[in-house]
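Sequence in, structure out.
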Amino acid sequence: MGDEHLSSGGGIGSQNTQNTDGVVDKHIRYDRGIRIWGMHGQAALEQAKICLLNCSATGSEALKNMVLGGINAFTIVDNSLVTEEDLGTNFMVNSSSLGQMRAKVVTGVC
């Protein structure tokens, strides 16, 4: 079985930060990041493309935090299937995910 490579440019549930024209206000959505590393740091994060090797519980948590921070896109490389152990440790999978490719399940959540 080959490695599963899945990519996404989407984001995990974000607050409603659209103005009346439907345009996202980045200053509101990414306020914490902007206060921490400034506009130049936030812009770099928004251009970042992340490759996550193994979307275990730790990898999934790290990915969630990067997506919420505003990364541009991500790719997951993981050839593991969702197991019973994942159900107790990885918040991005559930019992209906058992036996499915873990990378595909996690990408679908993000």
